[in-house]
Amino acid sequence: MLSRNHDPDTESLSRRRFRDDPSPYEMPNKKHRSMSPPLTHGDEPAVRADSVNFHESPMVPRSPVRTLRADTDPYMVDSEKTIRLLESFLYNVNDTTYLLYPHDYFVYWAKTSSGKCPDELLVLYAILALGSVYIRDAAVSAGQQGADLMGEALRSMGQRCADIVSEALRNRSEALRNKSDTLTLPIAQSRLLLALYCYSQDDALVASEHLSLAVNTLTYLHLNTETGCLAIDAGEQHAFRFDSAQIAECRRRTMWAAFLMERHLSTSTYRIDVHDMVVRLPCSGSAYEQSRQQMSDAPFLHSTCSSDRAIVPSASPMASLIPIAALLGDVNNFVSRGLHSHRGHYEKTFDPQCEELWALLQNWRSQLPEHLSSSRTNIDRCIHEGYASHYLHMWAMYYWSVIKLHRYYRHEWLPKRRAVHITRAYEAAKDFLSMATTLRSVWGEVSKSNSLTQSASPFVGRAIVAAVDVLAAAGLESTMRVIYDLTLAAAHCVTDLFEIWKATKAQHDACQHRPLQILNIMQHPTRARSGCWVRKEWGLDRRLEEEYPLDYDGIYGAANPDNDYFDALHAMSRNHNNNNDNINHHTARGP
């Protein structure tokens, strides 16, 4: 029986180090806590993670082999660099968005497992490759001796690990064609991790191929069903020395990670339909770490969507991302399919379908637990309690869904909907940029490590660009300074993302140029170029996103003799002023 322990109220945390570990490279000093509310007096008290061992086995000695190879344990070749890259992955990827592995358990497995099989080595090499993309040389400024040389060595090792995984997967594919190999969970995990690595190297096409093949593998193994996740042969040796409950949970989390990743990286319709996901949501982090053969009792997604709760009482932050990711997929499919509908059918069905999706989004928002709702207090709270990345991703998916739902439609066929669509899209864009830039700013005051947005998925960049494109399309003279400040701060967020995800170059370049255009209007209103003009209003005629034609773009295609766009902006301004007047009047009168 493996002895496991873990703080029950933690999953998305910076972890305790083992006593003989070097200080994690570029890890923050800030202690993080759970995304869930604190334990009540009735909960079990936490047990110190360093008071027991996960395994009875000793540390693996170093191997005389000093070369990284597909059949060699990297920990035996270079234990220090292996653990640093592993911790980098766990902190920046595993503990922020795609929570595939139990953190403390996995580190201990990497150190103590002396007979890792080829599948396990494949996953470990993929993990080290992805961990290397977060290694920066900023530690030099902190006075760490040789930090620049160590950073270069770690990135070089990561590149070698990626090459090993790529070659091994090619060999496995060839073996599959020859019917001398089988598809496995570690193969799917390796492809998911390599997809993210390729995206960081500006190779979005190869990343898409790996993601597609990973989805194929997972569905072939029936891991989109609870039956498939629980299919365990008697006496089967599980990957990573997991027990039966842990391997079932690992399968679920891998399937949900693919579900999220597809929505984060893909721009077209999705291969994983939410209605085909008949698998439990991720369980609590403590249950995953400690397990003790206790099978998960976490609910299914559809049972939570049909109830009065948008977020299940699971301690796993990953569970909070899935319901809004499902709605995001519904919005994306609705918009994509609408482009090809004939006019009669479109005019008849658009209103009820659009309003149904809008109601679902608002229902999701209204049912959020207090600590996940949108507020300045919760921005501070999510940073201090360690779930800022999940908070950012969750709201990025919500606001992107609102913007896309209301921007892309046949506005010329539905002129009566223009005002409400412009208003909803504009307000969502402004609210999201305010939240994202405030999160980044407050994080920078608290943490001396990587920027918050450097640990974000590429999707956050897509959401920021979508918001900038709407908010900075046009505006009133009175709001120009506010919009300039928001777009400039947004450009810094996208720059952070670009440092990690080189495939976001187009997003980066677009966001850098937009605040300069607005500044040009403010400084030279009579000589501004790029389609700018100034009266009581200003505007830009060049879109950042050109996914759909102008007659399907309710923001840039809405210019017409009736000035619908500016009418909507003036109406928003009047409502805002009236609300402020009412607040001031109430304050002046007193209680």
Automatic annotation (TrEMBL):
| Molecular function per GO | DNA binding; DNA-binding transcription factor activity, RNA polymerase II-specific; zinc ion binding
Annotated coiled-coil positions are none
Q: What is its main location?
A: nucleus
User: Where's the Xylanolytic transcriptional activator regulatory domain?
Assistant: 105-302
- Where located? Nucleus
Which Gene Ontology cellular-component terms appear in the entry? nucleus
| Region Disordered, annotated ranges | 1-44
Q: Where is the composition biased (Basic and acidic residues)?
A: 1-22
Q: Which UniProt keywords apply?
A: Metal-binding, Nucleus, Transcription, Transcription regulation
Matching entries from CDD domains are given as: fungal_TF_MHR (cd12148)
Q: Name one Pfam family in it.
A: Fungal_trans
Q: Which GO terms describe its biological process?
A: DNA-templated transcription
Domain of life, per lineage: Eukaryota
Record protein name field = Xylanolytic transcriptional activator regulatory domain-containing protein
Give the organism, scientific name: Dissoconium aciculare CBS 342.82
Q: List the lineage, top down.
A: Eukaryota, Fungi, Dikarya, Ascomycota, Pezizomycotina
